[in-house]
Amino acid sequence: xxxxxxxxxxxxxxxxxxxxxSLLTLLPFLYVVIISFTDANEYVTKSVVIFPEKWSxxxxxxxxxxxxxxxxxxxxxxxxxxxxxxxxVVTSSLSYVLSRKRLKGKQFFLVAILLTMLFxxxxxxxxxxxxxxxxTNTIWALILPVLTGAWYVFLMKNFYQDVPxxxxxxxxxxxxxxxxxxxxxxxxxxxxxLAAFGLFFAVAYWNTYFSAxxxxxxxxxxxxxxxxxxxxxxxxxxVADPSVAAMIQSEQTVxxxxxxxxxxxxxSLPIVVIYPFLQKYFVKxxxxxxxxx
Length: 293
Description:
It holds the Pfam family BPD_transp_1. Its main location: membrane. Keywords: Cell membrane, Membrane, Transmembrane, Transmembrane helix, Transport. This is ABC transporter permease. The protein has 293 residues and is an all-alpha fold. The chain folds into 2 domains: 32-65 and 238-287, no CATH class; 67-235, Orthogonal Bundle (MetI-like fold), CATH 1.10.3720.10. It has 14 helices and no strands. The chain has helices at residues 5-36, 40-45, 58-64, 67-99, 106-118, 123-132, 150-162, 165-173, 178-189, 191-206, 210-215, 224-236, 256-278, 282-286.
């Protein structure tokens, strides 16, 4: 069927509008990348740099040569890897248990999990709990309180409930226990959901900020996002922070703003690299347990 002129006009206008919106959202990221590669002298002499005449890697060399940034990046990497793995284990196993009809007290556990979605205890009770467990100033304070969420649990529970019971019965006949059914049947079937949820967990752990400010007082355990905030404050004011003073000393030749842009690029690069490989799982993974019939 041949499209009408009005439909073709609408399509062209739609594509143009989406292109403009995409460029507007992309420009701030491009500006950050451009400034991070701009030569220090050119950045100081020019008020606005759109396309630098001289490119430089001095900001990246300077950041990667400082132990403070490398240590903070390592803390964030440990959070992302360990936290994501533990979150996937807890979410998938809890969802599988709650999906079994023979579980005693199933309604009680479902209501208890639902209440965590509807009501939040607040910052002070959370801090009191973490402190009473002796988790303050440890990396576990940034992992254990946020291991899973009710939304992920309910989605995966619905998925496990939709798996035909004949698969579980066949596995039981072959000698699999409940744990064997979970690892040999359920987990392979839920890989798209695990990939999608895993990326969400990884991004959340990688961007950990507020809980680190609340629970971590040790400079050696500060994740990268906290360090970036300190760099921003240090570059914008004259307030000195001993933990980041070495990164922006007055005698270094790279302007603080250029250092800040390079730090943002480095901190965003791992997620930007991982995202394209997991994007194909998003639609399928996010629809897990949401469609019946």
